[in-house]
Amino acid sequence: xxxxxxxxxxxxxxxxxxxxxxxxxxxxxxxxxxxxxxxxxxxxxxxxxxxxxxxxxxxxxxxxxxxxxxxxxxxxxxxxxxxxxxxxxxxxxxxxxxxxxxxxxxxxxxxxxxxxxxxxxxxxxxxxxxxxxxxxxxxxxxxxxxxxxxxxxxxxxxxxxxxxxxxxxxxxxxxxxxxxxxxxxxxxxxxxxxxxxxxxxxxxxxxxxxxxxxxxxxxxxxxxxxxxxxxxxxxxxxxxxxxxxxxxxxxxxxxxxxxxxxxxxxxxxxxxxxxxxxx
Length: 279
Known about the structure:
- The protein is of the alpha/beta class.
- It has one domain (2-278): Ribonuclease Z/Hydroxyacylglutathione hydrolase-like (Metallo-beta-lactamase, Chain A).
- The protein has seven helices and 18 strands.
- The strands form three sheets. A seven-stranded mixed β-sheet has the order 8-5-4-3-2-1-18. Strands 9-10-13-14-15-16-17 form a seven-stranded mixed β-sheet, with helices on one face. A four-stranded antiparallel β-sheet has the order 7-6-11-12, with no helix packed on it.
- A hairpin with a 3-residue loop joins strand 6 and strand 7.
- The longest helix has 14 residues, at 73-86.
- The radius of gyration is 18 Å and the shape is globular.
- 43% of the residues are buried.
- The model has no long low-confidence stretch (mean pLDDT 95).
């Protein structure tokens, strides 16, 4: 498996791509390619072109959850596909894989849209909607985890805004749509996260159950440790240490204080736009 960082908050010296406070990865696994999240804007398309990655090629577009810094690039991807149609070029309709709640609107403080803003009828014209709450295997080794069970008290999720569920009820948004990918091999598991609103330790526990393997090789993505409490940082670090998680690549929504704290227990590795990781 190969992971290329198309969008992240961080950029790297001598690697002249652009960044934004968002996330997008391009994943190559077996005979499948996956666009994991689309960032906030069309920046992932620009960076992909510079990296000679074809944005029209993915077999799957996977959304970690519905927030704007992970889904609003979908609008630019739709424009990209439409432009290809006008030019008479082939348009490949990938599967759009996510939790069902990832595509429902999210309102913050009664006025601000912070979730997906494209209606289902538009998405259905460009993507094969594949909405899953259960694990879904993209390849023999790569799995979308679906809805993450939440078992650790210290990772209790505060609601961010409100969301309308499929029944039409407006509920506090505790981000039950937040999911992740796991790559399972004989050597262990690589976890790929967007924001980890469901809790990075909860994600690890579920990935171990789904993959039937207790060894974590690496974790790449957002840990959602922004201004985290001392208790949460300590409990997270102790959990990683007790599970012998040696290497982590926290990015996007993980602040410097959290990285420094975690570095006492794990090898915290650099991530930035243009980074590539091979397993």
